Amino acid sequence: MSNLVRCIDRSGQLTCMAADTTAMVREARRIHQTSNVCTAALGRLLTAASFMGITLKGADHSVTLRLAGDGPAGSVIAVADAQGNARGYVMNPGVVLPNKSPQKLDVGGAVGKNGTLSVIKDLGLKDPYVGQVPLVSGEVAEDITAYYAISEQTPTVLSLGVLCTPDTGEVIVAGGFLIQLLPTATEDTISRVEEGLVGLPAVTTMLTEGLAPIDILKKALPGFELEVLEEADTGYVCDCSRARVERALISLGPEELAEMAREETTEVGCQFCDRKYLFTASDLLELSRKSG
Ligand SMILES: [Zn+2]
Question: How far from the centroid of its chain's Cα atoms is residue 197's Cα?
Answer without folding.
Answer: 23
